[in-house]
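Support request from a user on the community tier.

User writes: "When I paste my structure tokens into the form, the page sometimes reloads and wipes my input. The last time it worked, I copied everything first. Here is what I submitted, just in case something in the input itself triggers the reload:"
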């Protein structure tokens, strides 16, 4: 619940803040071991334990629904009891003060979300659980916040992209509007440059061409090509040339295959 238990400025975690944002609420964390900071909440819990649950302690229930049905009339009775000192009852105080300040509920219930920080790569995709999701290419190189639910991946810098979550590892979810109309001059790597790099390590250029041809979108092959070409620094051009030739012969071109060869 609390991401930073600072004595003076405690901060709730991202999931709690996301929940509060959806319902238009504010979260003010109490100091640890200071129940007086939330006396109203502590008192309400005490009332439920002493006045309501004590009356149900000898009963047995088979489901949470049965418990709620038993609690409802007791709670209504409790809210109609007069305060000991202030005038009125809890029900009338709620109607006069709290009810007018309440906002309408959102159309959809809150779905538990988790957050992670992701960086937008040169192919304008981010990795989330080994699946890649597109973001507008103008944001290449930036760090974004990913909001993850069971159904949706939302990439946020004031929500720049949203995708249906996909569990297929190694796959791509690409939105056409995120793609540039043609190879961009501002992008450091292009298909032509990658193949040009491979020209000095034949037949690696052919392997690069094969990697590009296998992808639905050219940009999806960029990182695979970079991984292949980086092997020249690690193992030398001669070994990469031999590994590329073997990979082409058996039809299994990838940086991982060449590294093991």
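"...and here is what came back when it finally went through:"
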């Amino acid at each position: 619940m609390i991401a930073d238990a600072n004595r003076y400025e405690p901060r709730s975690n991202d999931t709690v803040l996301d929940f509060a944002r959806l319902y238009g609420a504010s979260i003010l964390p109490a100091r640890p071991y200071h129940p007086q900071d939330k006396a109203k909440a502590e008192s309400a819990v005490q009332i439920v334990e002493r006045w309501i649950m004590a009356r149900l302690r000898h009963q047995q229930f088979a489901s949470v629904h049965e418990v709620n049905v038993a609690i409802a009339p007791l709670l209504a009775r409790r809210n109609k009891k007069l305060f000991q000192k202030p005038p009125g009852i809890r029900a009338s105080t709620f109607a006069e003060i709290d009810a007018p300040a309440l906002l309408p509920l959102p159309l959809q219930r809150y779905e538990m979300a988790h957050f992670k920080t992701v960086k937008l790569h040169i192919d304008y995709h981010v990795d989330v659980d080994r699946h890649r999701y597109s973001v507008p290419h103008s944001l290449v190189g930036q760090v974004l916040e990913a909001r993850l639910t069971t159904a949706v991946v939302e990439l946020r810098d004031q929500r720049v992209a949203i995708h249906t979550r996909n569990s297929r590892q190694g796959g791509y979810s690409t939105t056409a509007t995120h793609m540039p109309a043609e190879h961009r001059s501002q992008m450091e790597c292009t298909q032509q440059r990658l193949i040009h790099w491979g020209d000095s390590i034949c037949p690696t250029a052919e392997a690069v061409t094969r990697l590009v041809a296998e992808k639905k979108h050219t940009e999806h092959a960029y990182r695979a090509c970079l991984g292949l070409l980086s092997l020249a620094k690690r193992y030398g051009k001669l070994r990469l040339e031999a590994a590329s030739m073997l990979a082409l012969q058996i039809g299994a071109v990838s940086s991982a295959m060449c590294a093991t060869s």
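Agent notes: The reload is a front-end session timeout and is unrelated to the input. The beta strands are 2-4, 11-12, 114-119, 125-128, 131-134, 143-148, 152-156, 161-164, 172-173. The two ends are 49 Å apart (CA to CA). Escalated to web team.
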